[in-house]
């Protein structure tokens, strides 16, 4: 039978087998917008730490000295939006303000190491001629085959998704409990192009923000930056409609206007949450 799902912040993330690759402490330490100090004493046996999500039990040896671990968490924002919605513009602006920007598409491409299991599985699914003479993916050919019909896009996602989820979790969550963890960034922005296939990772986010715009507006933007109408429509076909996209989000920005309007929305959002108040870098 299928194993029970692991849960982060009350939402399912992957399957229980994935939990074995995450320490119990990582599972619980998404401490949103807070800085907390936990004192650990020496007695062996289960040790429950109040104030941590889901009441993680930590076991310590009697030889472990008393110590304190200070946790400072990033605010993690998942940024979603369909093609030419302005999602990437929003992510780049937040990056200029000082946020850590993670482009999920770029992160996925870094998984495409020649000879890796991911690359071999993709070649099995889409044809070995998508590899060059060095065993690297020909990403242009892969894009043509993976996005020609929605079924192919879902097939590619089923191959890459589990590995990508684990890699993203390692970037956003602390890696161990017996050290001082101080993130370098106040805000992490994860840019997600195909959010409906990545909802099982939404438990890693403090907030999901959708950037939306009408289809005609997005098409005009795509054509203005050199994309063919056929390419735009093929990619748009693999994405949810704007109403469905908005149901996935906690917050929605209507980006029907120009970039100045989008920046005004983002500045107001940062101000309301007390983030990145130092101004643009």
Outline the secondary-structure elements.
Elements: E1 7-8, E2 11-12, H1 16-19, H2 24-28, E3 35-40, E4 46-48, E5 57-59, E6 67-72, E7 75-80, H3 87-96, E8 100-103, H4 104-109, H5 117-126, H6 139-146, H7 150-172, E9 187-192, E10 207-212, H8 215-224, H9 229-237, H10 242-247, E11 251-254, H11 259-273
Parallel strand pairs: 7-9, 7-10, 8-9, 10-11
Antiparallel strand pairs: 1-2, 3-6, 4-5
Key terms:
single chain; 281 residues; alpha/beta; five-stranded parallel β-sheet; disordered N terminus
Percent range for helical residues?
25-40%
Subunit organisation of the chains: single chain
Uncertain residue ranges:
1-71
Strand content: 15-25%
The SSE order reads EEHHEEEEEHEHHHHEEHHHEH
What integer is the average pLDDT?
75
Main sheet characteristics: 5 strands, parallel
> Span from first to last CA?
52 Å
Radius of gyration: 21 Å
The outline comes out as: globular
Structural class: alpha/beta
DSSP E strands, number: 11
List the total number of helices: 11
**What's the arrangement of strands in the largest beta sheet?**
8-9-7-10-11
Please characterize this protein's 3D structure.
The protein is of the alpha/beta class and about 280 residues long. About 40% of the residues lie in helices and about 15% in strands. It has 11 helices and 11 strands. It is globular. The model is unreliable at about 1-70 (pLDDT under 50).
